[in-house]
Write a structure and sequence with these properties.
The protein contains 10 helices and 9 strands. By secondary structure, it is an alpha/beta fold. Helix 6 links the parallel strand 6 and strand 7. The chain starts with a helix and ends with a helix.
């Protein structure tokens, strides 16, 4: 799958599931559950125990059926290690030029984090494919709309505070996709083995995104 095809997939699904699992086996079960609900984009954060092994195991298990990425990346060395392990996209809470550069060198999608319009523009001009607007929990969809007004050409992925209740609003405000963490993959639900609930949440999120894009 080419990078362009992967980017089309990001925007088609519209939901990047941010997962902090305890093991490869647990994450594979989570991936199966949310994939059944229509979410096939998974960001495995580097705060996950043995994150690189988890990324490798999930990538081997699903191949192109699930687009696996890495999150919480703070340096180029980590980005490269994750890409070699099978990560197809790299997400960071901040903007680091070395991370963007190495992702572009390997033709992988890169989503650096930024918040203010100045930071967002700087991330885009440094070579970002998408800019992760983080944290979005305190500002909501209206902030995305305000930023998109003077910067309509920059694809934004708000992360933090995104849920089924406001997913449609974030898309209508101009978001290219959404980063969704605990509102989709809840650790207690995983501990209880209620993977059917993950499937249902995934379905609701995807439906909300698609409905908003269709308007």
């Amino acid at each position: 799958m080419t990078k362009l095809e992967q980017m089309q997939r990001v925007e088609s699904c519209g939901v990047v599931a941010i997962i902090r699992a305890n093991s490869s086996a647990e994450l594979i079960e989570v991936a199966a559950a949310i994939k059944a609900g229509g979410v096939d984009l998974i960001e495995v954060t580097m705060t996950t125990p043995n994150a690189l092994s988890v990324i490798s195991d999930v990538a081997d298990q699903y191949g192109d059926e699930v687009l696996v990425g890495v999150g919480s990346v703070l340096d180029a060395e980590t980005a490269r290690a994750a890409m070699l392990a099978g990560a197809e996209f790299v997400v960071s809470p901040v903007t680091k030029a070395d991370v963007i550069d190495i992702c572009n060198r390997y033709s992988k999608i890169v989503m650096p984090g930024a918040f203010t319009p100045t930071e967002i523009l700087a991330a885009w001009e440094a070579g970002a494919d998408y800019v992760k607007v983080f944290p979005s929990s305190g500002v909501g969809p209206s902030y995305i709309k305000d930023v998109k007004a003077p910067l309509p050409h920059i694809p934004l992925i708000p992360t933090g505070g995104v849920s089924v209740d406001n997913a449609g609003e974030f898309i209508e405000a101009g978001s290219a996709a959404l980063g969704v963490g605990s509102a989709l993959v809840n650790n207690q639900v995983i501990a209880d083995g209620r993977f059917d609930l993950l499937t249902e949440k995934a379905k609701l999120l995807v439906e909300a995104v698609r409905a908003a894009k269709a308007d």
